[in-house]
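As a representative case, we now present a protein record of this kind.
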Amino acid sequence: MWKQTTLTLPPHPRGFHLIARRVMDAVPEIRELRVGLLHVFIQHTSASLTLNENADPDVRVDFETAMNAAVPEDLPYVHTVEGPDDMPAHVKSSLLGSSVSLPITDGRPNLGTWQGLYLCEHRDRATSRTLVLTLNGE
């Protein structure tokens, strides 16, 4: 089976947001698969996706703190036409990546016990974000 769909997420505030449930709800065909792969791609250059710990909400705060320390907004960026958070958002997006692939086993994502799928929003005033979800398997 091959299935591809898009999912539009509403604007989120800057930070790291768990989105696995919304993604899984957008492709209910996952439940039919014995084995497969779900590829999640974000069609934006100032937000990203990542897999990481999903249990303690403090992790999300620490993600944001670490990313801001690694990619500060006060560097002498040349690309500033869209605001001081735009170029750092592009850099953060490149560091974290624009896609993740999730293994599907017996109708469910086969993630580690504490793993969750995050939308990483790097802009202060973000717009909606579009994900392309591609599912294949049997």
Remarks:
- Residues 46 and 106 are 34 Å apart (CA to CA).
